[in-house]
Amino acid sequence: MPHRPYIVGNWKMNGTRAMLAEARAIDRAAGRYPDVQVAIAPPFTLIGALREAVSAMGVGGQDCHVNAKGAHTGDVSAQMLVDTGADFVIVGHSERRKDHGESDVLIKAKAEAALAAGLGIIVCVGETLEERDGGKAEAVVSAQVTASMPDSDAAADAVASGKVAVAYEPVWAIGTGRVAEVADVVAMHAQIRQQLLALYGDAGAKVRILYGGSVNAGNARDLLAAEGVGGALVGGASLTAEAFLPIVAAADNGEA
Q: Which of 22, 65, 93, 127 is an active site residue?
């Protein structure tokens, strides 16, 4: 891949200030892996504190609103994320798509709002078990990529500088302990790459494609060494240094 492997921890709705100790431990170790880009997306309440606590790794948000401000109780804008110290944001996570009914159109608008605010983005795509079993996985994911990714004009500079990533997360593998077969991951990442090249031309080769779905110390090496895998979006295993750092180490030794 044209950039360093990108290993991103998504803490989801987990974490209080007590977890800053884990973040510091991850950060200290991340400094020993200069060939790997490491980042954590904590709850919004911890972004500022985490930014102050770490130095070697990136800090991001888990979602943002499409508007910069307004009467949107409980929402957080991209500008607010920047102000509190974030340098990227995850949009379109399957849990947002399912639990909050987020559409591809909304996710695209969020991605473009984030880029306009100066944030990097990770756009999540992925199929359900029913869609995979029905032979629709590649069609579903391709449609999500086409409709969820920011327009080429809005994303040109960010794509060229490596600030745009896609996370392929088969919905049926998130938090279940099930992991997609490496061959299936390679095939899907190749399909996503073709979509990115169609959207952004040659610059589409610079967009890292991460795998997300029950990534852990036991499977990380095989997944990260697979062709076309540019990193990992890690959920539960990112909550402790003990579980997360072997994944970072696997990226350092793999061919992501």
A: 93
